[in-house]
Amino acid sequence: QLLLQKSIASVLSADINSERQKVDAIVVTFDNNKFAFLSPDSNIRTYLIDEKKRLDKKPISDLITEDFIILRSESESELVSNIADKHILKNRAKYYRYAQKKWKRDLSSYVSANGIQQTSTLLMDTKKISTASIQNIESWIFGEVIRPNHLKEILETIGYATAQANLVDEQMYIIKNAHIAAGKMITDNLIK
Prior knowledge:
The structure is a single chain. The chain is built from 6 helices and 6 strands. The radius of gyration is 22 Å and the shape is elongated. The longest helix is centred in the C-terminal third of the chain and has 29 residues. With 192 residues, it is an alpha+beta fold. Helix 1 crosses helix 6. The strands form 2 sheets. Strands 1-2-3 form a 3-stranded antiparallel β-sheet, with no helix packed on it.
């Protein structure tokens, strides 16, 4: 059981002066007198106990006392990545993660040398990769994207040989599938 209270939580800001700032938060109080502060505009993963035994996400404002909520100490993507590396990729994880970091670093170097606008235009107009917007390119480089659509073509555009681009694309396919399997493992373990 949990008790929801809308409140203003006072937290230390990240600035150098360490001034206190007010932030909106929902206080969730649990039966064991533990509590958590949650952002009122976020979604929370819940466990539905019905004939399907399933996981779902719902806005915090929709939580009810009977809900089981799932709190993690790390982000969802970090959790999935760690499970994928440890239980699926195993001793090959470092090899695949190195390949992932390398293609992202190579794309970043290409963008630095040629400009993000020019890179986007080249990929969209010449290579017909409609998803190569500036925002997506930034996400490919800095985000958690493993294998964007048309990865082979992107890699060839930044100077990879066809065989090398194919190899990296296959490696990213393996990582992506490992993440999917890890997500399924996590869900299966939660609903047991």
